[in-house]
Amino acid sequence: MTQHTAQHLQDWTALQNGVNMPWFGLGVFQVADGAELVKAVKSAIAHGYRSIDTAAIYQNERGVGQALAEALAENKLSREDLFITSKVWNADLGYEATIAAYEASLEKLGLDYLDLYLIHWPVEGKYKEAWRALETLYKAGRIKAIGVSNFQIHHLEDLLKDAEIRPMVNQVELHPYLSQQALRTFCREQGIQIEAWSPLMQGGLLDQPDLQEIAAGYGKSVAQVILRWDLQHGIVTIPKSTREQRITENAAIFDFVLSAEDMARIDGLNRDQRVGPDPDNFNF
């Protein structure tokens, strides 16, 4: 897995298997299926985004699929130009059930393959069978890359004991109040790409005084500073937005570089504070 600082919106990192994953994408968590979703995804692709992240539990894969079909035609792009991620939900974490869930996601998205498929949560006693299903699909050429989401170090260590194929990505809640330093170090050592969900802490950091001060110094928004911090740390990031102005603004982070001092200052904001569930204590 090679790391380099992203220079533009369509820049990518090479995963451990050589697949290119964009550093920056659009997440559609909590965006209801329908016109707003379709418009947001199409807007992102029109503005140069190439990565879209959804999940079975978001219940919006059909809308994402509609948007992808329309965006490909309107922007004269091929399927290979896009990087599409979905995730298997907790209720489907058995070998056969995971394969069936993958087929269902593909059908809803109207796609022949996914670029990345993730186990959404580390449900104890279930994720190894699901991982075996992902390995089967991957070896059959049905998925370009496979990975996990919300896995802590001990979950990864447990999975790696029996895995034939090591996860290529671990998508976790990650933002300046939850910087996940130990997990990032572990994943880097294992060749697992870290990806941040809720990079803006669901908007909870936009009034943070240190971040406001840093942002003012660059003439940028707090959101832009946080997303830039992600990239400079080698973290793939997928901010969610449905507003075209915000979708464009979020991606305008390739014309400045945070200083080492400001990176360290943001690092120092960590509180191990989550907005989402704790992967060691969740109930779905």
TrEMBL record:
CDD domains: AKR_AKR5G1-3. PROSITE patterns: ALDOKETO_REDUCTASE_1, ALDOKETO_REDUCTASE_2. Residues 34-270 form the NADP-dependent oxidoreductase domain. Its EC number is 1.-.-.-. Transmembrane segments: none annotated. Keywords: NADP, Oxidoreductase. Gene3D superfamilies: NADP-dependent oxidoreductase domain (3.20.20.100). One of its GO terms (molecular function) is oxidoreductase activity. The keyword Magnesium does not apply. InterPro entries: AKR, AKR5G, Aldo/ket_reductase_CS, NAD(P)_OxRdtase_dom_sf, NADP_OxRdtase_dom. Belongs to the aldo/keto reductase family. This is Oxidoreductase YtbE. It comes from Paenibacillus auburnensis.
